[in-house]
Design goal:
elongated, alpha/beta, 7-stranded mixed sheet, 4-stranded mixed sheet, 13 strands, single chain
Length: 565
């Protein structure tokens, strides 16, 4: 077959399909911050220049495709093909496109497909767009505007007809046909770094293709072939709809912040959790090739994998929607160094008490295996996780916790105490605080003092001179019993960092007034921290209260952990 085609012959080949593994249409926007012109603009300029030069043969970049009956599945060249279509639309060549039965299909993008179909009908305004922010449609409309701008001069010169003839007959491309099995790898190799798909996107593509694949009917009757194609498209659309629902959920800001998705693909934790739970070979890493060879070998395994992913996604959503499991997993996610294993444990373990136990020991730096296997210290008949829990509690029982070895555990234990209060109300805790966390001194450290040699110093170690500070706002460190100080756990609460600055060196009464002030326009998120709330609800704050609060917190922590020793 001659692979050198004019645009006319190319467009007459059949129905052009943009497969699901292709990225959206983006030629309507500038390529980067340094280039003001977009690819559509460059493409139009090059065609117009060739037309004005009266080139006998002008080649654009090659097209690579899979041929499936009358379907041309575009592996490389979707941007050029779509732009050619938009040029014919912008130049009012709709009847011509209809006469050659040209059709451009966006495989699983319903809104994009509707928009393009309505362009052929001459009324894109009838398009019902489910998502007004659909990326493709934005770029389609931007591209159409750009094309009309570029051809305005030719239109004024009444040369549009001549240009269309030139475009059809004298613009050429190389048309390469490949096997369907090589489509994805060819797509990657041809596009290189400019459009490398993440493993998650490749998995989606292969799952959708193979899950909706059936044996072609032996009959060549038109009705059976149409029914066969309809069934494939129906199943592929249904599966794509499910995938898009998962993607929508994982793209929610609250979900991304909770799981800490960061720069990963939104579906990373869904797919890697499935990989870890179903893959027995720990030497194989999670990537597209391994996932494909293990779980997407054929249409049967692909359908099975898709169904298991659907159930796993439901487990994620159920865990997230249940306040208690949400809260315990939330603590674990903020304190573990083995996030993937922690997530898998919570999805598999349905016993809420065991989830709580796991979280408590992860919080004190126990590893995943130490938490679930109760691993014992070598030469000692005691669990490592218990040693770590007791060690962490001992650190926050010290006289000086703030900015010392126990500082991190003070954050973690105060987080735990606040979460427990939300659990009592069956309420989800707002874990956004973890990236904005702050330890606040209930009695200001600048208003506490101690004797150092012949002089007095405040809690910031600033010299106050030889005279003992006077006034009810001052706290004598030496009067705090139970090995306490202004820097002990009894005088610390968890706050949002942005609220911490509202307190400064204010007295307890002033801080209390600020905390409970409701008339201010400022959003004071720390008011939602129920353990912190209970502290500021105290009628007074002094050395006795600090010592008493320290005892209460330590006993509370010991009682919590003693239930699992």
């Amino acid at each position: 077959m001659d692979n050198k085609l004019t645009i006319k012959k190319y467009l007459k080949k059949g129905k052009f399909v943009i497969p699901n593994y292709q990225r959206g249409f983006k030629w309507g926007e500038p390529n980067n911050d340094h280039l003001k012109e977009c690819s559509v603009g460059f493409f139009c300029d090059s065609l117009i220049k060739a037309f004005k030069r009266n080139d006998e043969e002008y080649f654009i970049e090659a097209i690579t495709a899979v041929e499936d009956d009358n379907r041309i599945i575009l592996v490389d060249g979707q941007q050029r093909t779509t732009t050619l279509f938009l040029i014919f639309i912008a130049l009012e060549q709709i009847e011509y496109l209809k006469s050659i039965q040209f059709k451009l299909v966006y495989d699983v993008r319903k809104d994009s497909d509707n928009f393009l179909n309505n362009l052929l009908l001459g009324d894109s305004e009838k398009t019902i767009i489910e998502d007004e922010n659909t990326q493709d449609i934005h770029y389609f409309t931007t591209a159409l505007k750009k094309i009309r701008e570029k051809f305005k001069k030719l239109e004024e010169e009444r040369k549009i007809g001549d240009f269309v003839k030139f475009l059809n007959d004298k613009v050429w491309l190389l048309y390469n046909v490949i096997e369907e099995t090589k489509a994805i790898t060819t797509f990657i190799s041809l596009n290189g770094l400019k459009a490398v798909m993440k493993d998650e996107e490749l998995i989606k593509s292969d799952l959708l293709i193979k899950s909706s694949r059936y044996n072609k009917p032996e009959s060549n009757s038109k009705e059976e072939l149409i029914g066969f194609e309809w069934k494939i498209n129906e199943d592929r659309s249904r599966l794509a709809h499910n995938w898009d629902k998962w993607l929508y959920w994982w793209n929610r800001e609250d979900v991304k912040k909770y799981f800490g998705t960061e720069n990963r693909h939104p579906l990373y934790f869904l797919l890697v959790t499935y990989w870890n739970s179903e893959n027995s070979d720990e030497n194989k890493k999670f990537d597209f090739d391994n996932f494909k060879s293990k779980f997407i070998k054929d249409n049967v395994s692909a359908k099975n994998t898709f169904e298991k992913l659907r159930k796993l996604q439901k487990s994620f959503e159920d865990t997230y929607n249940n306040p208690i499991s949400f809260n315990y997993l939330g603590i674990a996610l903020k304190t573990t160094t083995e996030k993937e294993k922690t997530i898998a444990y919570f999805l598999n373990e349905k016993d809420e008490k065991k989830r709580e136990e796991y979280t408590l020991f992860v919080l004190v730096n126990s590893t995943h295996l130490e938490s679930i296997n109760k691993t014992k210290e070598k030469d000692q008949d005691v669990e490592i996780r218990i040693l770590k829990a007791k060690g962490a509690i001992n650190l926050v029982n010290e006289k000086f916790v703030y900015n010392s070895a126990g500082n991190e555990f003070a954050f973690r234990f105060l987080l735990l105490l606040n979460v427990i209060e939300d659990n009592k109300l069956n309420r989800k805790f707002n874990f956004n605080i973890w990236n904005e966390r702050s330890l606040e001194h209930i009695h200001p450290k600048s208003k506490a003092y101690y004797k150092d040699g012949g002089n007095f110093k405040d809690g910031n170690n600033n010299d106050l001179g030889s005279s003992k500070p006077n006034g009810k706002e001052w706290l004598n460190r030496d009067e705090i019993n139970e090995n306490g100080s202004e820097h002990c756990i009894g005088n610390l609460v968890l706050l949002y960092g942005k609220n911490n600055s509202s307190f400064g060196a204010k007295t307890f009464e002033e801080k209390k007034q600020t905390y409970f002030e409701t008339s201010s326009d400022l959003k004071f998120e720390s008011r939602g921290l129920l353990h912190t709330f209970s502290i500021f609800a105290s009628s007074e704050w002094n050395a006795e209260r600090i010592a008493g609060n320290k005892i209460k917190i330590i006993k509370n922590l010991e009682n919590i952990y003693n239930g699992f020793y």
